[in-house]
């Protein structure tokens, strides 16, 4: 997770530099901040992914086990 945070910080710095050199209303500035937003969205998505519990892991490895059967009603 810290790797994506480092990427976000790098993209923020690049966005600031792009906006300083090209202007706040430039396409380069907007594109740079879009890249920051995309990375932030990915970081948020990664935080939302719930890790599998031990039963889910077991059923992934042993889908035919009795404990893993799913019955339709």
Description:
The protein has 73 residues and is mainly α. The chain has one domain (2-68). It contains three helices and no strands. Helix 1 (2-22) runs antiparallel to helix 2. The longest helix is centred in the middle third of the chain and has 22 residues, at 27-48. The chain is rod-shaped. The mean pLDDT is 91.
Q: Outline the low-pLDDT stretches.
A: none
- For the termini, the CA-CA separation is 41 Å
Secondary-structure-derived class: mainly alpha
Q: Hey, roughly how much beta strand do the residues contain?
A: under 5%
What is the makeup of the main sheet?
none
Rounded to an integer in angstroms, the radius of gyration calculated over CA atoms is 21 Å
Shape designation: rod-shaped
How much helix, percentage-wise, in residues? 55-70%
Number of strands: 0
SSE string: HHH
Mean pLDDT: 91
Separate helix tally: 3
- Total domains: 1
Main attributes?
0% strand, 73 residues, mainly alpha, single chain, 3 helices
Brief overview:
This protein has 73 residues and is mainly alpha-helical. Helices cover 70% and strands 0% of the residues.
């Amino acid at each position: 997770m810290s790797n994506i945070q480092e990427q976000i910080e790098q993209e923020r710095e690049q966005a600031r530099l792009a906006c300083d050199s090209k202007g706040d209303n430039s396409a380069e500035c907007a594109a740079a901040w879009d890249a920051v937003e995309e990375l932030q969205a990915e970081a948020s998505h990664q935080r939302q992914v719930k890790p599998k519990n031990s039963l889910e892991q077991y059923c992934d490895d042993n889908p035919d086990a009795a404990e893993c059967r799913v019955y339709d009603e």
